[in-house]
Amino acid sequence: MYRFYIQDALPAGCLPAYTLPKPDQPHYYELDENILNAALNIMQITDVLDTDDLLDDDCFNRIWLKSELTPARASEVYHFLSKQQLVDPIPSPDEIAAFKQAREDEIALLSLRSPKDGCIPVHKFATQDAWRIVPQECLLIVDMLNEHLLDDHNEVVKSIASLCHITHKTLEHALKGWRGFNEFAAKHGGYKVC
């Protein structure tokens, strides 16, 4: 199961127009892996996914190596800053600055857009590592789903449903919900893929 968490804090009483997985938790949306795979297939055949610009396996390691913090020390600094846990030794101002810079660099990498105009990097949906789908990418998904959920283009959805062993109605219903979520997320900073 994939969960998509709205990036910004939602104002009190802010409710989306789509059906919520849990009525008291409007900040996330869930999609079954089979449904997401079907959606990605549609995105790929409509040239919305960028499958060319893949990140290498060491991109995150380079960020943290640059910070000169060991993984254990980075964890201690995180717990000191985020959970107010006392650690020994207490992080120095330089360690705190290095940690914050590494986190900023990591978030920038997680949010990186495709160099191809109108595309979303496929790696953002490949793992559940909190990749950031930015508002512009949410709107690309909305536009693609609007186009392919219309009656005359619904053949694409029918074909993909068949290939993914999902009923057409199940896929169509799920994609309409995901479209609504992406519309909502675009107004609230995008979302994280978890």
Strand content: 5-15%
Order of helices and strands: EEHEHHHEHEHHHE
Distance between the termini: 9 Å
Enumerate how many helices there are, as a single number. 8
Cα shape:
elongated
- The percent range for helix content is 40-55%
Total separate domains: 2
In the sheet with the most strands, the strands line up as 2-1-6-5
Number of strands: 6
Arithmetic mean of pLDDT: 91
Biggest sheet: strands, sense, closure? 4 strands, antiparallel
Rg, nearest Å? 19 Å
Low-confidence stretches: none
Secondary-structure-derived class: alpha+beta
Plain-language structure description:
The chain is of the alpha+beta class and 194 residues long. The chain folds into two domains: 130 residues; 53 residues, no CATH class. The chain contains eight helices and six strands; from the N terminus they run E-E-H-E-H-H-H-E-H-E-H-H-H-E. It has a four-stranded antiparallel beta sheet. Strands 3-4 form a two-stranded parallel ribbon. Helix 2 packs antiparallel against helix 4, helix 6 packs antiparallel against helix 8 and helix 7 crosses helix 8. The longest helix has 19 residues. The protein is elongated. The N and C termini lie close together (9 Å).
